Amino acid sequence: MPVDGSLSERLPTPDEAEKARTASTLLARHRDRRGGLSLRVRKGAKDATVELPPAISHLVLDLLLAVGKGEAVALVPFGGDLSTQQAADMLQVSRPFLVKLIENKEIPYHKVGTHRRIRAQDVFAYRQRRDRTRNDALTRLARLKQEV
Predict the structure, then answer these.
(1) pTM of the entire structure?
(2) Tens of pLDDT, residues 66-101
């Protein structure tokens, strides 16, 4: 990854965080009923309109919200490969815990030289399974509590 000062390499400055908070609030208020955004951009005397579908609008707002909180951000292509540390960070678990997951074959991986690499889509799939299992367990607990 080239060193270019982008927010994938550093934390946002307080000024960048404030501008991101302002932008996220403004853009969130102007979404259409489906969640899309229509943006007007200007360069000198010329301007253009950009239509963002709901999924992309949500992604832009998520990015702005994270930057507004002063968090580091990185966009990961769905088909991209991740290091074990990157995958652990995405799952918000320790690297040793992630290594146990791949050794237990809960998340597939492949080797590049001596390094383990995990496809981003496999990390997303594991996270969905994990979250579904957690939600199901919480639902069962709530039902049990109501029965008592």
Answers:
(1) 0.60
(2) 999 998 887 777 778 999 999 998 898 999 999 999
Long-range Cβ contact pairs of 99-108 (< 8 A, separation 24 or more): 101/126
Residue 73 identity (one-letter amino acid): V
From CA 34, how far away is CA 5, in angstroms rounded?
Answer: 34
Strand-pairing partners, residue 50, are: 39
Domain residue spans of the chain: 14-68, 81-147
CA distance 79 to 60: 20
Closest CA to 62 of 23, 32, 10, 6: 23
DSSP conformational letter for 3: -
Residue 112, beta-bridge partner list: 115
Which among 53, 67, 55, 54 is positioned nearest to 24, based on CA atoms? 67
Give yes or no for a contact between 119 and 82, defined as CB atoms under 8 angstroms apart.
yes
Burial of 98 from C-beta contacts in 10 A (0-12 / 13-18 / 19+): buried
Helices (H) and strands (E) in the chain, counts: 5, 5
Residue range 81-147 in CATH 2.30.30? no
Residue 3 identity (one-letter amino acid)? V
